[in-house]
């Protein structure tokens, strides 16, 4: 994980306490975002994923963008984000979740233009008392490729964020937290079809993130 600050660093333990507190108490304006617009062209396909959190609401976003058109021509013209739907005046709580349990969140179905895509970055940050700003991204490069075909749907997995405190990852990540990116199609696809009964056939394209060797990207919560 890469950390950036806008003012001098506090002692490590104080920073961890402050940042941990930030993820429990945060201004509501940070929790509200406008939803990305869907593609309305006749050649569009559907992107399916789930997003949410484990053991508490946490803000984040994954970036994805289109690399090539269906004919292989370079595109890089359709960019968007994967992010949780959070609300609440103080606590970052998942709003009206589609599922609850160890993981809480929503199943998202978006209409996007056809072509090859990649998820290749994440971001989250916060504001601590005293005006210190923090942001994190991945030190380890990663790429989660997927393809959207006209009139078809592609499932790319579940994107969940979990606190690292209280897990074996705390010594590596401090209070920053980590992501579980995994195949939850047995849970997610029935929900997607309930939302969109006319959903076309679904192609599975879930990347095994363990291969990147990043402590922040996991396929499961460590014991």
Portion in strands: 35-45%
Number of strands: 14
Helical content class? 10-25%
The oligomeric state of the chains shown is: single chain
Tally of helical runs: 3
| CA(first)-CA(last) distance | 21 Å
- 3D shape: globular
Rg over C-alpha atoms, rounded to the nearest angstrom: 18 Å
Please give the domain count: 1
H-E order: EHEEEEEEEEEEHEHEE
Strand count, sense and closure of the main sheet?
Answer: 6 strands, antiparallel
Mean pLDDT: 82
Unreliable residue stretches: 2-33
What does this structure look like?
By secondary structure, the chain is mostly beta strands. It has one domain (36-122, 140-218). The protein contains 3 helices and 14 strands. The protein has helices at 12-22, 170-173, 185-195, and strands at 2-5, 45-54, 61-68, 79-82, 86-87, 93-94, 103-112, 115-128, 132-137, 144-148, 153-162, 178-182, 202-204, 217-218. Strands 1, 3, 4, 8, 9 and 10 form a 6-stranded antiparallel β-sheet that branches. Strands 2, 7, 11, 12, 13 and 14 form a 6-stranded mixed β-sheet that branches. It has a two-stranded antiparallel sheet with strand order 5-6. It is globular and about 50 Å long. Mean pLDDT is 82; it is low at 2-33.
Write the layout of secondary structure elements.
Elements: E1 2-5, H1 12-22, E2 45-54, E3 61-68, E4 79-82, E5 86-87, E6 93-94, E7 103-112, E8 115-128, E9 132-137, E10 144-148, E11 153-162, H2 170-173, E12 178-182, H3 185-195, E13 202-204, E14 217-218
Parallel strand pairs: 2-11, 11-13, 12-14
Antiparallel strand pairs: 1-9, 2-7, 3-4, 3-8, 5-6, 8-9, 8-10, 11-12
